[in-house]
Amino acid sequence: MRSRTELVGHFSISDLENLSGIKAHTIRMWEQRYGILRPVRTSTNIRTYCDEDLRRLLNVATLCGRGYRISRVAQLSEQELSQAVMSCCDDAHDHVQQVNAMLASMLEMNELHLCKQLVWTIQQLGFEKAFMHVAYPFLARIGIMWQAGTVNPAHEHLVTNILRQKLMAATDALVPVQPAESLRWVLFLPEGEMHELALLFMNYTLRARGHHVLYLGQNLPSAELEAVCETYKPYALCTVMTAVPERDQVQAYIDRVARLCPDTVLYLYGPLAHQENLVLTSSMVRLRLMTDFLAVADQLRPTTVAQ
């Protein structure tokens, strides 16, 4: 194990507060009274915290949130702390603690624990609620850490691949829908766009509600859409714009898609769809939240599968 002097401090105490949900004054008290964290001081005497500090704090916060006394938790070794977290996260409705536990497993690169936590949550809540209430907040916290430069591509790939596997397996387990019996959707990502998780979740939720989906996935050249629409005749297209196209090219892109498929509704989701200056036609619908998309899918649900 590396010594403390070899561990680079990435986080301020306010970073730890935002990532763990534990107030800064509580973190300071735990640090001073129980020694759960050991910050490194900069040349200007400012405390900074490393990845190990964040991982330990997330585990400590998880246990304290489940009723453990901090004096007891502070005495646990790293291995005992990790094992205690795995055994105590038995409340599927305590979403904050579930997210904290998954973050700690991710930082440890502990794929086994991460998969177990996710599978258990899905079993308890159901697939869709597990993704909405746990997986999505988990990804949002990772996004904050990514912006702060405190997670690396390996962390992101670990999480993305696990969630992608679960989404594809759950989708494959659904009963197939006949195109003639439901609305038809085409789901795709713009050319160069590779962030697929939101689109995969949309694919699952549509199929689960009896819609028929032609899933075209990542990196689709827009020119291909014209032939797709002529052949498949979908009710709607749906795309997610996370990193592509460039911000100043979004308007031109959605206008091009609308020209290629003039008789089709175009649903737009993702950070780049949130630009306030976009000019939308009557056939374009901007979805700000995933719950907005779920509301559309519910509203248009075929009557034969309506609940």
Summarize the structure.
With 307 residues, the chain is α/β, with parallel strands linked by helices. The chain contains 13 helices and seven strands. The chain has two domains: 4-171, Multidrug-efflux Transporter Regulator, Chain: A, Domain 2 (Orthogonal Bundle), CATH 1.10.1660; 179-299, Rossmann fold (3-Layer(aba) Sandwich).
Protein described:
With 307 residues, the protein is an alpha/beta fold. The protein is elongated and about 70 Å long. The chain contains 13 helices and 7 strands. Mean pLDDT is 83; it is low at 1-8. It has helices at residues 13-20, 24-34, 51-65, 70-73, 78-88, 95-107, 111-125, 127-147, 153-172, 197-208, 225-232, 250-260, 290-299; strands at 40-41, 47-48, 184-190, 212-220, 236-240, 265-269, 284-287. It has 2 domains: 4-171, Multidrug-efflux Transporter Regulator, Chain: A, Domain 2 (Orthogonal Bundle), CATH 1.10.1660; 179-299, 3-Layer(aba) Sandwich (Rossmann fold). Pfam families: B12-binding_2, MerR_1.
Secondary-structure map:
Layout: H1 13-20, H2 24-34, E1 40-41, E2 47-48, H3 51-65, H4 70-73, H5 78-88, H6 95-107, H7 111-125, H8 127-147, H9 153-172, E3 184-190, H10 197-208, E4 212-220, H11 225-232, E5 236-240, H12 250-260, E6 265-269, E7 284-287, H13 290-299
Parallel strand pairs: 3-4, 3-5, 5-6, 6-7
Antiparallel strand pairs: 1-2
Helix pairs in contact: 3-5, 3-6, 6-7, 6-8, 7-8, 8-9, 9-10, 10-13
Beta-strand portion reads 5-15%
Report mean pLDDT, rounded to a whole number.
83
- The Rg value, from CA coordinates, equals 23 Å
User: Which blocks of ≥5 consecutive residues have pLDDT under 50?
Assistant: 1-8
The backbone outline, from C-alpha atoms, is elongated
Helix content: 40-55%
CATH topology of the largest domain: Multidrug-efflux Transporter Regulator, Chain: A, Domain 2
| Alpha-beta classification | alpha/beta
